[in-house]
């Protein structure tokens, strides 16, 4: 679990990022979880956008993605989810 201080730090790091994945009509599927997992391994911190055509609630999408990728939800703001997972090989963020 992330502490409040760590989440604050990660939010500040994620501020300038653009969403690199979008969840749409198909909602969350295995292929998407796999791709997001690989992106998290490479970058540690990513944003996922939720399109209006997505039939699931944004909180549900965030929980499913976090479970599937074994990552932490940093924040859900508007229709954007920020996910963090410590990388095993490409460690770039030093948490406070």
Give a short summary of the structure.
The chain has 96 residues and is of the alpha+beta class. It has helices at 4-14, 30-43, 58-69, and strands spanning 21-23, 45-50, 72-77, 80-84. GO terms for molecular function: RNA binding.
Structural class comes to: alpha+beta
Question: What is the terminal-to-terminal distance?
Answer: 13 Å
Q: Tell me the count of domains.
A: 1
- Main sheet: which strands, in order across? 1-2-4-3
Largest sheet: 4 strands, mixed
- CATH level-3 fold name: Translation Initiation Factor IF3
Poorly predicted runs of 5 or more residues: none
Shape: globular
Rg: 13 Å
Oligomer: single chain
Overall CATH architecture: 2-Layer Sandwich
Determine the CATH superfamily: YhbY-like
- SS strand fraction: 15-25%
Task: Give the SSE order as H and E letters.
Answer: HEHEHEE
- What would the average pLDDT be, to the nearest integer? 92
Reading off the top of the CATH hierarchy, the class is best stated as Alpha Beta
**How many helix segments?**
3
Number of strands: 4
As a percent range, the share of helical residues equals: 25-40%
